[in-house]
Amino acid sequence: MWTLRNATHAAVVDPGEARPVLEYLAREKLQLAAILATHHHPDHVGGIPGLLAAHRVPVYGPKHEPIPTLTRAVAEGDEVSIPELGVTLSVLDIPGHTRAHIAYYGVESLFCGDTLFACGCGRLFEGTAGQMMASLSKLAALPDATKIYCGHEYTLANIKFAQAVEPANAALATRLERDRRLRDAGKPTLPCTLGEERATNPFLRWREPAVIESANKYLGARVSDPLRGFSAIREWKNGF
Ligand SMILES: [Zn+2]
């Protein structure tokens, strides 16, 4: 979970639990201004009732997913204004991991839940590979400097898989070394940047000849359809 904050207020994104958020707000003397959810999974919304018991704030989340605590259901085209922070975020529809998963984009930051991960992407629980590929392509069109605030710290395992797909990608080796050092020091590898994702994330790189070749090897066939290649990489990752 993430907070977006200034000196006096904070918004929280995907509070899977209430207690660490309440403790953080108390410690930092912050007033909660809003709650934002990207999708309905309990590890992203489980803390909302506990936060609402202590703070009466708007709760934003995907219009087409079952989250009973939402007060403002949103979808692509909508904006989320948080006046206490002077921030406005745009909502993007990015289905694939779940059927109506959304992202929040603004202030050079992307809160993308379990769709785009550092060097990986979410599993397909409710959506199709085609939806995930389109959602990731939409995110990949954002500026290189965009900071990616994703839902889980899976970076090292994801880089190892990415190296299996693209063994000769030098940017991956550099990234592994840096991120391993961060984790050894007990630090997060996040946020990463979209530019870095475009250079290393196999799920954004399905047009690259090396990725296509690895997908073909996994399938034991030569496929020209990009979606089949993308699906093969996603399936390969499930069993990696
Ligand atoms: Zn999830």
Percent helix: 25-40%
Give the rounded overall mean pLDDT: 97
- Structural class, please? alpha/beta
Strand residues, percent? 15-25%
Q: How far is the N terminus from the C terminus?
A: 26 Å
Cα shape:
globular
- Treating each run of at least 4 consecutive H or I residues as one helix, how many helices? 9
If strands are numbered along the chain, what order do they take across the biggest sheet?
6-7-8-9-12-13
The low-confidence runs, each spanning 5 or more residues with pLDDT under 50, are none
Radius of gyration: 18 Å
Element-level helix/strand string: EEHEHHEEEEEEEEHEHHEHHH
The number of distinct β-strands equals 13
Main β-sheet description:
6 strands, mixed
Report on this model:
With 240 residues, the chain is of the alpha/beta class. Helices cover 38% and strands 22% of the residues. It has 9 helices and 13 strands. It has helices at residues 19-28, 42-45, 48-54, 129-140, 155-165, 170-184, 194-200, 209-219, 226-238, and strands spanning 2-5, 9-13, 31-36, 59-62, 72-74, 79-82, 87-93, 102-106, 109-113, 116-117, 120-121, 147-150, 192-193. The strands form 3 sheets. It has a 6-stranded mixed β-sheet. A hairpin with an 8-residue loop joins strand 7 and strand 8. Helix 8 crosses helix 9 (226-238). The radius of gyration is 18 Å and the shape is globular. The mean pLDDT is 97. The site of zinc ion has 5 residues, from loops. Residues 39, 41, 44, 97, 114 line the site of zinc ion.
Give a brief description.
By secondary structure, the chain is an alpha/beta fold. Helices cover 38% and strands 22% of the residues. A 6-stranded mixed sheet has the order 6-7-8-9-12-13. It has a 5-stranded mixed sheet with strand order 1-2-3-4-5, covered by helices on one side. The chain has a two-stranded antiparallel ribbon with strand order 10-11.
